[in-house]
């Protein structure tokens, strides 16, 4: 009798693989199956009602779905780019300070401690048209005497959500880019100065390429939990007013739990999963690529 | 002379601009949070006042007293939510760290086929949006009968945290030179002893920060918790926060007090690990 001997790395990884299969993989397989059925929570036996690609066809031809899809992509594109640029600016400003950097760094971390649900609540309060900080300030300063309906008007609500989203995540970029700025070797910068580069040129051709891996790390970390914007939207507007801030995730939640149409919701869920996986794989690819350019890693 | 003067003016204005930019950025980052803290100490009348009261006349602990006394502010059993949050977060963190240590060690020390592929596959499981995952989890947990229990939440959060802890811990073990453990093995330690006596102590602080990261994720998670918890037996604080909004009048003061209660542990823990956290994220990622 020979005992089955597994390689040590597999034994070490086994617990992780087991828990991830139990909680992520199996449910996902189940949801893939149910996305091909007309499963409704209220009628459990409808799980065996195979409808083929019907749910996907319905999603693809649904205007509401595409509106939510477009809005999600728009939100991610605007928010991620803004966060990156503001984070870069913030890191550059902090790195130029000569004293009190520790305090500034700590202050920078402040928004990172807030959970998304708290951020949503906080900005729901701040943008409240009646008792919110923003309207109170605008009215006290005499800029306007009307209550601006920040969360009631569709466009303003979208703006408020992007503001909240950017507020939380800018410091993630800022902190990581700052760490990158500390790690930059001095020599190339001095060489650039000797060669007569302006400060703008040496930033563009020396500093920025060194920072790219750090920017991609931040992007990769962010892409892992972009869906956390769901929490913020859920509490700030719940997809309203009249679905004007409906994102893919809130639409899925509403279809699954409120309308109880699980099959359809899972079909849309799968589309959102592929969107998330695309972002993650893309940034991890970029990360390894920029590492290789700097000769930093295998 | 003129160029000199020009130069000086330019430098001073740049300095002023820098100071102004930094100051306003820090204001934007800090004021929203401080405003919540301030409002948790103000009576409801003052929060709702029109025209607004800028300088508080009165600060008191009414909202906190209401939250902890009796059944809680507006019937929201905050204390129960707090205990639930604490039990679920601590348990899932401990398990996630143990699993993460094993996995991270495997990635840092062993070579095997498809290593990069396995790694990305692990990270991808983390990228699945909580809402999309909560639908099938809800159905399966309901079937198995662990919906609305601590066990169900702990399992969900362990799975949520494992990929990221593996990533972080992998980075920390990589910084420990393998020669250290080899030397210990030559001196007569088993691999197991070498790990606990040599490699683990060196990477300990890094592992602690990965743990705190996992704790904060569980502590703050909402998308899964909002569907997998139904009643006071397992509801966590982020879900409890919504109890204040479901009534006809929003209890802003009470919500602020609960928000402060949620933020305090997060604040303390983040301060403790901020140095390790930055090092872990950057070096774990760059030298990978």
Number of strands of chain B: 0
Query: Which CATH first-tier class of the largest domain in chain B would you pick?
Result: Mainly Alpha
CATH architecture of the largest domain in chain B: Orthogonal Bundle
Taken from the alpha-carbon principal axes, the silhouette of chain B is: flat
* Structural class designation of chain A: mainly alpha
Largest interface: A-B, 98 and 88 residues
Oligomer designation: heterodimer
Per CATH, the architecture of chain A is: Orthogonal Bundle
The main β sheet of chain A shows up as: none
Instruction: State Rg of chain A.
Output: 24 Å
CATH superfamily of chain A: MetI-like
β-strand percent of chain B reads: under 5%
Query: Tally the helices of chain A: what do you get?
Result: 12
Q: Total domains of chain A, how many?
A: 1
Pattern of helices and strands of chain B: HHHHHHHHHHHH
Order of helices and strands of chain A: HHHHHHHHHHHH
Structural class of chain B: mainly alpha
Q: Give the terminus-to-terminus CA distance of chain B.
A: 54 Å
Average of per-residue pLDDT values of chain B? 81
Low-pLDDT residue intervals, each spanning 5 or more residues of chain A: none
InterPro entries (chain B): BP-dep_ABC_trans_perm, MetI-like, MetI-like_sf
Organism (chain B): Thalassospira lohafexi
Function (chain B): Part of the ABC transporter complex MalEFGK involved in maltose/maltodextrin import. Probably responsible for the translocation of the substrate across the membrane.
Domain ABC transmembrane type-1 (chain B): 82-273
Overview of this protein structure:
Chain A: It is a multi-pass membrane protein. Chain A: The chain crosses the membrane at residues 12-33, 73-94, 106-127, 156-184, 205-224, 267-284. The complex is a heterodimer of chains A (298) and B (288). Chain A is built from twelve helices and no strands. The radius of gyration of chain A is 24 Å and the shape is globular. Chain A has one domain: MetI-like fold, CATH 1.10.3720. In chain A, 72% of the residues lie in helices and 0% in strands. Chain A is an all-alpha fold and 298 residues long. Chain A starts with 7 loop residues before the first helix and ends with a helix. In chain A, α3 packs across α7 and α5 packs across α7. Chain B is mainly α. Chain B has two domains: 2-63; 74-286, Orthogonal Bundle (MetI-like fold), CATH 1.10.3720.10. Helices cover 76% and strands 0% of the residues of chain B. In chain B, α4 (78-109) runs parallel beside α7. Chain B is flat, with a radius of gyration of 25 Å. The mean pLDDT of chain B is 81.
């Amino acid at each position: 009798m020979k005992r089955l001997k597994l390689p040590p790395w597999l034994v070490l990884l086994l617990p992780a693989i087991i828990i991830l299969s139990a909680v992520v993989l199996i449910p996902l397989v189940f949801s893939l199956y149910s996305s091909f059925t007309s499963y409704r929570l209220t009628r459990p036996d409808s799980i065996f009602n195979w409808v083929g690609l019907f749910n996907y066809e319905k999603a693809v031809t649904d205007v509401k779905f595409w509106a939510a899809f477009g809005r999600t992509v728009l939100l991610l594109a605007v928010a991620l780019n803004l966060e990156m640029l503001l984070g870069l600016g913030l890191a550059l400003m902090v790195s130029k300070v000569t004293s009190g950097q520790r305090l500034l760094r700590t202050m920078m971390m402040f928004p990172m401690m807030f959970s998304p649900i708290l951020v949503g609540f906080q900005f729901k309060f701040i943008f409240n048209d009646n008792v919110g900080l923003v309207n109170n300030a605008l009215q006290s300063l005499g800029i306007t005497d009307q209550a601006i309906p920040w969360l009631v008007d569709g466009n303003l609500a979208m703006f408020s959500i992007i503001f909240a989203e950017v507020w939380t995540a800018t410091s993630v970029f800022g902190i990581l880019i700052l760490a990158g700025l500390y790690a930059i070797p001095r020599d190339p910068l001095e060489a650039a100065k000797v060669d007569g580069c302006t400060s703008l040129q040496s930033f563009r051709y020396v500093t920025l390429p060194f920072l790219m891996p750090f920017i991609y790390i931040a992007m990769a970390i962010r892409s892992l939990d972009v869906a956390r914007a769901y929490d913020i939207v859920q509490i700030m507007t719940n997809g309203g007013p009249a679905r004007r801030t409906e994102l893919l995730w809130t639409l899925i939640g509403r279809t699954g739990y409120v309308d109880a149409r699980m099959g359809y919701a899972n079909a849309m869920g799968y589309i959102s999963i592929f969107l998330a996986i695309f972002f993650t794989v893309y940034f991890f690819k970029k990360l390894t690529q920029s590492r290789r350019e700097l000769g930093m890693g295998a | 002379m003129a160029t000199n003067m020009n130069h000086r003016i330019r430098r001073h204005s740049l300095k002023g601009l820098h100071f102004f930019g930094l100051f306003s950025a820090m204001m934007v980052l800090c004021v929203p949070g401080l405003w919540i803290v301030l409002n948790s100490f103000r009576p409801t009348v003052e929060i709702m006042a029109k025209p607004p009261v800028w300088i508080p006349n009165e600060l008191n602990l009414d909202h906190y007293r209401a939250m902890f006394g009796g059944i809680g502010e507006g019937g929201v059993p905050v204390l129960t939510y707090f205990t639930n949050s604490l039990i679920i977060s601590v348990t899932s963190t401990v398990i996630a760290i143990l699993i993460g240590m094993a996995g991270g060690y495997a990635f840092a020390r062993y070579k095997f086929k498809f290593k990069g592929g396995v790694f990305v596959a692990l990270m991808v499981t983390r990228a699945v949006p909580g809402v999309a995952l909560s639908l099938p989890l809800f159905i399966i947990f309901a079937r198995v009968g662990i919906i609305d229990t601590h066990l169900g939440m702990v399992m969900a959060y362990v799975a949520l945290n494992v990929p990221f802890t593996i990533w972080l811990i992998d980075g920390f073990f990589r910084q420990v030179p393998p020669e250290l453990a080899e030397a210990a093995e030559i001196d007569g330690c088993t691999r197991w002893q070498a790990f606990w006596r040599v490699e683990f102590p060196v990477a300990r602080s890094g592992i602690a920060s990965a743990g705190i990261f996992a704790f904060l994720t569980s502590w703050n998670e909402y998308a899964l918790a909002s569907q997998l918890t139904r009643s006071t037996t397992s509801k966590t604080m982020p879900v409890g926060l919504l109890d204040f909004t479901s009534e006809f009048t929003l209890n802003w003061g009470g919500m602020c007090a609960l928000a402060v209660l949620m933020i305090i542990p997060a604040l303390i823990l983040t301060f403790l690990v901020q140095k390790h956290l930055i090092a872990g994220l950057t070096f774990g990622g760059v030298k990978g």
